[in-house]
Amino acid sequence: MDIDVAEREHLAVDELKARLAGAFARSHSAERVRSAVVVAHHRFDGRPIRDFVPIFVERIAKEDLRRSAS
Fold this sequence. Notes:
Blueprint: H1 5-23, H2 30-42, H3 53-69
Helix pairs in contact: 1-2, 1-3, 2-3
């Protein structure tokens, strides 16, 4: 089964939400983590190159969550 780039990106971001919810469970609610990921992901709306978006979203969301835990 071959999935397109948009579907792969969607799956990667969904997996990222779950992974970060576990990693930040002690300092943030699952909803706060989901929100950080969604906000970071929307920063790339309309950008033509999508291959590395999940990686960038993870970095941005982690930075946001770490900063707000302090």
